[in-house]
Amino acid sequence: MTMSFETINCIARFDSLGVQAYDYPAIEHFLDNHANNHDQEGMTAFILPYNDGGVAARSHLTVERKILQGISLENVMVRFGDRGGVRASDYRVLHSLLYEIPNLSLRHIIMMNTWFTRESFHRRMIPYVRLISAMILQQNCLPPESLWVAKPLEKFSLAMIKKNWKIHVKLSGSKYMMPQQGAREDEEMVDEEDETEPAGPRGPKQRYMRPHRELNADVASFVNFKWVPSYKDFNRGQQEVFDNVSRV
After folding, report:
1. pLDDT for 238
2. What's the pLDDT score for residue 186?
3. pLDDT for the residue numbered 49
4. pLDDT tens-digit profile of 125-146?
5. For residue 179, what is the DSSP state?
6. Any idea what DSSP says for residue 165?
7. What does the radius of gyration of the chain's CA atoms come to, in whole angstroms?
8. DSSP state of 54
9. Dihedral sign, CA of 26, 30, 36, 39?
10. Could you count the other beta carbons within 10 Å of the beta carbon of residue 120?
11. What is the pTM of this model?
């Protein structure tokens, strides 16, 4: 299977402008988790107006930036852990969305994240699984014996946000806040990194009750059948990668 600007475009038009209209930062600069000389001056202050110089968190974002970062975490800069934090790569994506500086190409971001994951020694997840699966199918790289489940794409719109997201906003002085349900009002819920999770298998009810899991019992049974004896010793991230490979 080949991933390129051209093959990604065969799935959908992810970039609305021509190739020359975008900026293409080097992968080491874009994924650098610290501000560097290639970033816009004052970028951190623009993105985190409520940060006091400490560790960046979602509580330091305005309501608008929180919503955009939530969309980014699900579709652009996807990750398992540290979802309550804000990384330098998040700054760059948010700054591009809000100010169009730099003008980032989604195709370029997809390829940088995919390349970084492929070259990582400890892979904890596969980004853009549905896009990669669509490319495998389109390029006829799917083994004949594989089980394949078609799942329609849901168009992202304001109506979809209202239907699936619960956003609670409160005014505290001159600051708008988005308290997390079930958490204290003055703190954010922070996800733990996956490697801290204990090793061991998880029951079928827990693994297949979520919407993004397999859609029928045949695929679930097929994935379980592929488990090797050492599967029980994998951490959660390794189990996710193993199951994703079995799935496609």
Report:
1. 72
2. 41
3. 86
4. 788 888 888 888 888 887 767 7
5. P
6. -
7. 20
8. S
9. positive
10. 10
11. 0.60
List CB contacts of 114: < 8 A, sequence separation 6 or more.
3, 127, 128, 132
- Contact status, residue 152 vs residue 134, Cβ threshold 8 Å: no
Specify the DSSP class assigned to residue 152.
Answer: P
The DSSP secondary-structure symbol of 19 reads G
Mean pLDDT on 213-223: 62
Report yes or no: 232 and 198 within 8 Å, Cβ to Cβ.
Answer: no
How many residues are given for the chain? 248
| Confidence bin at 95 (pLDDT 50/70/90) | very high
Orientation of helix 217-225 relative to helix 236-247, angle to 10° = 120
Nearest to 243 by CA among 205, 201, 211: 201
> Token pair for residue 6?
């051209």
Condensed to tens digits (0 to 9), the pLDDT of residues 145-175 reads 776 666 666 676 777 777 766 666 666 665 5
3-state secondary structure of 234: coil
Residue (of 98, 89, 32, 105) closest to 65 by Cα position: 98
CA dist., res. 7 & res. 13, Å (int): 10
List all residues 6 or more positions away from 22 whose beta carbon is below 8 Å from its beta carbon: 15, 103, 104, 105, 108
